[in-house]
Fold this sequence. Notes:
Radius of gyration: 33 Å
Strand content: under 5%
Order of helices and strands: HH
Largest sheet: none
Distance between the termini: 99 Å
Oligomer: single chain
Number of helices: 2
Helix content: over 70%
Shape: rod-shaped
Amino acid sequence: MGIGLSGNEENSNVYLNSIYSAPTSTKRRIHQSLNLAKRLQIKQKETEDLKKELRNKQEELEKAIDEAKIMKDLLDKTNQP
């Protein structure tokens, strides 16, 4: 307990300090907005990275399909015993 304070007085001071130190609703909304904006920015970067990776994989797939077609054409043109 605090010096010279009864238990009730100390508890009321703790509650008052909590109320006074709690952010106002405007500050809380601003803080939440900033946090949401930060999360949105992170998710947008993740989305951009995933889209880039998808484009690369699609290009690799198209290249592999083209190579397979060329190999199949070569195989069809070779003389089979």
